[in-house]
Structures are given as C-alpha cells and as structure tokens.
Amino acid sequence: MAKKRKHSTNPKQRELLILFMIVILAITSVYGVAVGFGKQHKGSAKNIELGLDLRGGVSITYEIDEKNPSETDITDTVYKLQKRVENFSTEAEVYREGDKRITVEIPGETDANKVLNDLGKQGALEFKLEDGTVVLTGANIKSAEAGTQEKNGIDDYVVQLSMDSAGAKAFADATAANIGKPIYIYYDNEVVSAPTVQSAITDGQCVIEGMGNYDAANELATTIRIGALPLTLNEMRSNSVDAKLGANAISTSLKAGAIGLALVVIFMTAVYYLPGFLAGIALIIYIFLNLLAINGFNATLTLPGIAGVLLAIGMAVDANVIIFTRIREEIADGKSVLNSIESGYNKALSAILDGNITTLIAAAVLWMKGSGTVKGFAQTLAIGIILSMFTALVVTRHLMLAFYHMGAVNEKLYGRAKQTKVFNFVKISKYCFIGSLIVILMAFAFMPINVKRYGNILNYDLEFSGGTSISMTLDKNIDEKTGDEIVQTVKDTVNVKTVQKQQVRNAPKEIIIKTNELSVADREKLENTLEKKYKVAQYSAEEISGSVSDEMKSDAVISVILASILMLIYIAFRFRDVRFGASAVLALLHDVLVVLTLYSVAGLSVGNTFIACMLTILGYSVNATIVIFDRIRENLRNNQLVKQGIDVVVNASISQTLSRSINTSLTSFITIFMLYLFGVSSIKEFTLALMAGIVCGCYSSICISGPIWYLMRNRLDKRRADAKAESKKKANAKKDKKKKK
Where in the chain is the domain with CATH 3.30.1360.200? Predict the structure, then answer.
C-alpha cells in the first residue's frame, strides 16, 4: 500500500485567491451601483427609492363624505390610512388638512392616477348573514393580508383577517350558529366575497380560503382594508410634487459624503498605517454593497434613512478600530505580525458581535413595532450593520492577510501599542454625574420658556404640530430661485422658523408652501404680501395636522422602550451580570436627555428628524459602551488587577479602550460634520443634533457607563461584606454565650 499523501493549502495562495474574489466583489458592486444588472438596470443607484424629502412623489387629498365626523373617527382614519400606504413606502405621510380633508403623500411615485387605482376608493364594508343581519363592519377589522397556506400538500391562496375584541366576540357567535352557511362580505352594497363557515371562529383570526391566485387574494384583502376605514373618503385632488428639501439636497449630500469618506480614509491611514488604508478600501466596498442592498430590499431612502447609513459607516469603522488596537497590543506583547493579526481578530470578535447584535435587536424591534420614518430608519440601519460586520470581519481581514503574504511583514506597517497611561475615571465620575445632571435639568428648565416662545414645551415641527399649507398659482413658471425667494418672503413676513416648499411637477406655475400655524391676522398679512410681490392667479390656505400622529408617536416610544429592555436582557445574558445591562441603558438614557437639552435650549425643530436623531444616538452609544464592558469582562479574569480593586479594573479598561472611543467618535463626527458644512440649510439642524449626540455618546461611554457599573458592583460587594461581618458577629456572639454557660 502506498503512503497516503497529506494535502495542505498554501496560505499565500489561499489569501491571494480570496483577494481575487474580493476584487471581483468590488468590481461587481461598483458596476451594479453605477450601471445596474439586466435590461431594467436593477441595483443601479438611480433606481433607489427616495423619500418625499429627497425626491418628491404623489400627493392625494381626500375629502370626508360624512357631514359631522367625530375627532376619534378622523384620527383613526388618518392612522389606518398611514398603515395602508406603508404598502407603497414606509416613508409615506398622512395628515389632516382643514376640517374635512386628509392628504396622503407617497414618495417615489410619479403617476397619481395609478396610485389612486392601487389604493382604491374607500367605501362601506359589512359582513352579513343570509338574513341580512350585520355581523361586522369595517371598524371591527384590524388587518387584512394576502398570503398562502398549505392544504393537502398544495399551496392555497388565502386572505388572513384580524378583528378587534368586539368583532371577535360577534364573529364567534355568528360562526358558531352558521356552520356550513356563507357569510357575505359587502363593499359599497355589493357582494365581493361569500366564504362558507367551516367551524366556529373564537379567537378573532379568520382565513378566507380558495382565492385561486395571489392577485385575487390581494385584491380582496385591499378591498377589505379600504372598507375598514371609519370614514368614507372621496378624492378631491391629486398631483406630483417635488422634494421637500429641494432639488440640491441629494447632490450636496453626495458631495458631503464623498469628502467625509475621503477624510476618514486619510485619518485611518495616518493613525493605523497599512491596516487603516485597507480598512478605507473595505469601507468603500461596504458603501457600494450597502447601496445595492438598499435597492434590492426596496428600502426608501430619506434623510433619517441616511442617518441609519451614516451610523452603520461609523460602526464599520469602529469594528476596524477595535481590531487594529488589539493587533497593536499583541505586537507589543512580542507576538509575530501574523499571529498578532489572527489573535487581534479573535480577541476583538466578542466586542464587535455583542455591539452589532445589540443594535440589530433595536433595529428589529423598531421595524416590527414602529411606523413611518421609524420603520425606514430601522431597515437601512439593519442592512448597514450586517454589511459592516461582513466588511470588517471578512474583507479587511483577508485584505490584510493577502498584503502580509505579499511581503508586508514589517511590524512598522501595523504599529505597536504604547504603554497605557491609566486615568482615574472612577474618581472624577462624581463630577461628571453632577455636570450631566445640571445639563439634563436645563432641558426641563427651558420648557416653560419654550411654551411662551413656541406654544409648546419644544419647538415642534410641522410633522408633529401641523401648521398652515398654502397653495399658490402664479402667472409664470416657478423656477428654483423663485421658489427660494417665496420661502424667504414667508419667513420675513410672518417671522416663522420652519418653511417647506413643494413644487408641483405637472403644474409648473403652482407651488405649495407649508409653515408653522398662522393666526388669522398673519394669514391675511402673508396673503397681501405675496399677492403684491408676485402675480398670484390663485391662492388658498388651509390648516394641516401633523403627519406624525399620536399613535405613531406612541409606536415610536413603545419601540424604544421595548428595544431598551431587550438590549438590557441581551447584555445581561452575554456578560452574565444584569448590572452591565442596566448601566448601558442608563448611559443611553443620559445621552437622549442631554441631546434633548440641545433641542430645548437651542430651539431646534422637533419633527421626523428628531426621532431619527434619537434612534441614531441610541444605536451609536450602546456600541461604544459594550466595547468598554467587554474589556472590563476580560480584565476581571486578571487576578493581579482584581486584587488591586474593582475601581482599578474599571479605570484600566476605560484607559485601554480610550483611543478607540475617541478615534471612532472622530471618524463618525467627520462624516456628519461634512454633511453639516456642505448640506442644504434644511438639514443643518439635524446634523448639529447628531454631532452633539456623537460627542455625548463618546463622553457617556468613557465617563458614565463604566463608573455606574462600578458603583452597582461596589454596593453589592459592600452588602456582601456587611452580611459576612454580621454573620461573623452573630457566630462570635453564640460562641461567647456558650463560654459563659
């Protein structure tokens, strides 16, 4: 028998092969974004769905048919309509206009008639028995979705219905008494379906079977959803409108992003040498992959969505910084460059995974429970996080190994960690706590002042508080310059901060201006000024409600609370100590409240971007905190440090990760600052708040989260020591008592 030969893979050949695959991936992603695939150019950046703020879309105004609709019915109709139009886009907006009108704005669409046909005309919906008894009305239907279920090994197309508690009870009684008989579904007094009752349905969940195909199931589901609105709506007008942030918003944002990216690559190269340069290449690949994924998942990109992308870029850089810091530490410990690379990735893995998974948990909750802007933010954030982990853990790693095997073996190309100077962060933490408390209290101190200034505790934007919508038709076409002049005229005439303009695509002489709520006197003054300055052929003004309804605000708050609880549970589980989770959540709360102070004191507009800003800060801050906690967990296994005291462990851990915390925050700050510097004026407030959040997140991770954990841990240790001393005291007392006897 011949001796069996061992097959071994040449590491250099393997890494060069992987490098070749990375090059192919990069070329493919660049081609996909620039040109697209196939005849329809799928994946091309031009095909990315943009929101109303960046691209514009379709605006449809409905008039309520009922004579005296209640406020409850109007509010319910707006909320249900918002949920329905999210089938077109998660960034669609629905708001009340005047007393009996509701306006729907859907981004990315250009054909108003097509949207109207797809959305349908709302009519009365009733579920009746054969004798004409009404079992349910549209008000009892919570949801109606098309789907499939397996029956006898074959997929059957169905409509899945969900009812409210009153509807569930009525339907349970009706189905129990009419097994084998049909229940007729009437829409606008016409039968659209008559499913036969097969059994009593008692849980409020109903399935209509045998729809034939998906289109039939979807059509019936759409009809039921439309009829489930509390009020009857008639189309009043529809048109296509331009971007809220202006035509230059995209070009200026791209310019800012390109400059920011270039500066980040330069910074990473200057600080981390060869690994930093390779991380820059991986970051560019990440951006193209991200654009492809956003396109592939039909995500609608808006200003808040861009915030999610920027956050993911920051986290991609963060992962690389953690790894490179570890590699330098390993080289400083005397390991070879190759072993340092492998060991650096292994040691950094837990912190990277925990940080990204925690943020993914938050994104998942926000997607499932949120609505509108919150849902869109969650989608772009989740896509970015997954891809950022891939580029940091796979692309950068194999780029580094390939360069090493091609001759980049000198440790000077990678750097060597300097001896860490340990600062006593625990000692100064009490001053940090006092300073933070003072800053947070300022937010609440300014709220009564804001009531006098803005009429609310904060300067609510149009999306939150509503305002006045003005439609104007001039005797000539309105170009970008004229539109900007009209905006400035509105600001100067009635002294308002927020003014949005939308030009109507199919009516070049028409423009829509939305601004803060105006008094009767201000409305008259503005109308006179505009008519004198411009040749106005038509002019109308209506009060509009906020596009962010109370229910949507509630959804956002519930989402954030639930996400925080799940993050706490995850961190506590991973670190086997609930105090880590509690400390992280308290640090998050600190960051949110400090940024709230900025909004309160500076009077920044609170609208959709406010929600996006707070969510961005939550995701960013928790990632930085987990890196420090990961180092504390590691150092708790160092007996020499532990013997010196838990405060020494905390101080050493924060000091060892200090450069990472500062450098990551700096790279993220650079990208946002470029957007602030070169972006359109309407997004400057948003970027200002984000920059404050980045600085605050860095500060809280260093000065707040670790010391809070130490205080919790120290208190527990003190309790244990006190309990031990008390137990010993009792034992000694018993001994003394026995001796006396």
Answer: 60-241
- In order, the DSSP letters of 114-152 are HHHHHH-----EEEE-TT--EEEEGGGEEEEEEEEEEET
60-71 b/e with 16+ CB inside 10 Å = b? bbbebeeeebee
Query: How far apart are the C-alpha atoms of 204 and 192, rounded to whole Å?
Result: 21
Starting at the edge strand found earlier in the chain, the sheet holding 205-208 runs 141-151, 154-163, 205-208
CA-based radius of gyration for the chain: 30
Cross-strand pairs, 64: 233
Q: Are 563 and 365 in contact (CB under 8 A)?
A: yes
Question: Tens digits of per-residue pLDDT, 322-366?
Answer: 899 999 999 999 999 999 999 999 999 988 898 888 888 888 887
In whole angstroms, give the CA distance from residue 309 to residue 528. Answer: 44
Residue type present at position 544: I
Burial zone of 208 (CB within 10 Å; 0-12 exposed, 13-18 middle, 19+ buried) = buried
CATH number of the 467-544 domain: 3.30.70.260
- Average pLDDT on 108-118 reads 64
Residues of the chain with CATH 3.30.70.260: 467-544
What are the pLDDT digits (tens) for 561-578? 888 888 888 888 888 888
**Stretch 290-315: mean pLDDT, rounded?**
75
pLDDT band at 547 (very low <50, low <70, confident <90, very high): low
- E strand or H helix at 474: strand 467-474
Q: What is the DSSP string of 272-303?
A: HHHHHHHHHHHHHHHHHHHHHHHHHTTPEE-H
Looking at domain 60-241, does it have CATH number 3.30.200.20? no
Answer yes or no: pTM beyond 0.70.
yes
